[in-house]
Amino acid sequence: YGTLLKDKILAVKEELIKEYIDPEILGYDIMKQIIGEPFYKSQPKRIKDLYAGISEATGIDPIELSTIDQQFMLVLLARRTGQTAMCTALSTWGSNTIDGTTYTGRNFDFADYIRDMMPKWGHLVVMNPTGGENSVAGVGIAGMVTEIIDGMNSKGLYYEFNNGAGTIGATIYSNRTPIYSHVFNCLFDYDNIEELKINFNSNLANYPSIMITAEPKQGQAFEVATDTYAAPAPEQKDLTCRGNQFIDPSWGIPDLPSPAAWYSRTRRETFTKLVQEAAPNVDENAMMKIMNTEIYDKDNDWKQVDGMTVFENRPKGGDVTVWQVVTHPDDLKMWVRIPTYSGWMEFDLKKLFS
């Protein structure tokens, strides 16, 4: 990893310095104290070994590598009292899909400078352990080893993350394993959603998050607070969808109407409606077509119907769709697009896993 991506990892480090340290948004000591050191300590040995190898190849200290790995947490830390990110994801199966198996779609909406990084330094990383664990693949940026927010393993277990701060605030705990890394590491050891639930019963998250997970025959939404979680039943027949609010009634927290949490309800309802209209013929092509719809018009006004992706049009300072992912876990396939930069790129993970 370090040898293949050395130049890109060094470039990403300089970009993070330019984005955070030079303008004094975050200091180096703060980044090490809150992100680098504690998150490094939380990693299992196989990840510390990867950091050591990358460090040897690049000359970057493992603590700094941990910070580069957790660069999305840097964005959330910098926005601790301000804007948080928006994402939308959906999983559908059974009566809605062309073959009854699961298909997922997701928009990762985040800082626009990260979209600019993706064409230069983005990658699909594939890990094939030699010790008998599952193989794992995920989308990220050079230097990211565990902060994979779109990952799938060789059993067809897939997950994606949305920001959950739209419901309960943007608290980050530094004395816990980062939630993104934790679930990524779970993919090495767990085969299905039920096993993930048992793991979640034993661990506390460091940041409020929303997950859409999928396996070949079904999907599951997780609403993860920092003290517990909910795994609600599908809110529609053979379909579950989330934006950036918890919606399970057991929380007792209202699902606020748009524009709360960056129009979370509108994005969720729009995605659900378009998928239901495409049923029973949803496949990867139908999902891609649905995800080609825009949120904003050319005047940056919110479209109240049939749109969910932020291409070029957006209000000043608003997030953009950094990447889009469609998956078919039953076939171990993942399609990735970087809006405004690329078309859909197909990754047949069966050929990459060993």
List key phrases describing it:
single chain; 354 residues; alpha+beta; seven-stranded antiparallel sheet; six-stranded antiparallel sheet; 12 helices; globular
Question: Could you walk me through the main structural features you see in this protein, from its secondary elements to its overall organization?
Answer:
- There is one protein chain.
- The protein is α+β, with helices and mostly antiparallel strands.
- The protein contains 12 helices and 13 strands.
- A 7-stranded antiparallel β-sheet has the order 3-4-5-6-7-8-9. A 6-stranded antiparallel β-sheet has the order 10-1-2-11-12-13.
- A hairpin with an 8-residue loop joins β3 and β4.
- α2 crosses α4.
- The protein is globular, with a radius of gyration of 19 Å.
- The two termini are about 15 Å apart.
- The model has no long low-confidence stretch (mean pLDDT about 90).
Short description:
The chain is an alpha+beta fold and about 350 residues long. It contains twelve helices and 13 strands.
Overall number of strands: 13
What would you report as the Rg, rounded to the nearest angstrom?
A: 19 Å
Structural class: alpha+beta
Q: Give unreliable regions as ranges.
A: none
| Helical content (DSSP H or I, runs of 4+) | 25-40%
User: What order do the strands of the largest sheet run in, or round the barrel if closed?
Assistant: 3-4-5-6-7-8-9
How many strands, which pairing sense, and closed or not: the largest β-sheet?
7 strands, antiparallel
H/E element sequence:
HHHHHEEHEEEEHHHEEEEHHEEEH
Integer average pLDDT: 92
The number of helical segments is 12
Q: How would you describe the shape?
A: globular
Beta percentage is 15-25%
State the separation between the terminal residues, measured CA to CA. Answer: 17 Å
